[in-house]
Amino acid sequence: MASPSQASLLLQKQLRDLCKNPVDGFSAGLLDESNLFEWSVTIIGPPDTLYEGGFFNAIMTFPLNYPNSPPTVRFTSEVWHPNVYADGKVCISILHPPGDDPNGYELASERWSPVHTVFEKPFVVESIVLSIISMLSSPNDESPANVEAAKEWRERRDDFKKKVSRCVRQSQEML
């Protein structure tokens, strides 16, 4: 089991590496300089998607036993998406606890694994954010966090697009 001090060391290295080698499509930093366990992340809406041009802010919260348990990611910007709960929390496989899915939707290999460490390439935070960018590009409406958005995505795509477009405009106004 990782101790909070081990987690702190891992997170310090991850943040340092991200600052040295920035990745296109997102930026990350500490929410509060005194807390390595909460990061402020901005994800740029991927090109050729409904979210293109948006600047979506999120908070990534790491548990004290990181990397044994996954962080949580919660958008603070409004994001209309089948895989984002109404409170902004992101629901993707890589952020689900390790092991078998009790609901049978995901393979254990798709879920969080403690073998993800900051010493691997791509780094954990980069992997998570790239998974979120992929989620924005390709919503999974099979096991939605936001049932209403999933239903709209499937049945009323024009209405879905209008809501996403409003979210993109709002995110640009917040700059």
Describe the structure.
Accepts the ubiquitin from the E1 complex and catalyzes its covalent attachment to other proteins. Involved in the formation of multiubiquitin chains. Signal the protein for selective degradation. It comes from Castilleja foliolosa. With 175 residues, the chain is of the alpha+beta class. Helix content is 33%, strand content 16%. The chain is built from four helices and four strands, in the order H-E-E-E-E-H-H-H. It has helices spanning 4-20, 124-137, 147-155, 157-173; strands at residues 26-32, 35-44, 55-61, 72-75. Strands 1-2-3-4 form a four-stranded antiparallel β-sheet. Strand 1 and strand 2 (35-44) form a beta hairpin. Helix 3 packs across helix 4 (157-173). The N and C termini lie far apart (40 Å).
Order of strands in the sheet with the most strands?
1-2-3-4
Order of helices and strands: HEEEEHHH
Q: How would you sum up the major sheet?
A: 4 strands, antiparallel
Distance between the termini: 40 Å
Radius of gyration: 16 Å
Figure out the total of helices.
Answer: 4
Could you tell me the number of beta strands? Answer: 4
Structural class: alpha+beta
Low-pLDDT residue intervals, each spanning 5 or more residues = 117-121
Shape: globular
Strand fraction equals: 15-25%
The overall average pLDDT, rounded, is 87
Proportion in helices: 25-40%
GO molecular function: ATP binding; ubiquitin conjugating enzyme activity
EC number: 2.3.2.23
Family: Belongs to the ubiquitin-conjugating enzyme family.
Function: Accepts the ubiquitin from the E1 complex and catalyzes its covalent attachment to other proteins. Involved in the formation of multiubiquitin chains. Signal the protein for selective degradation.
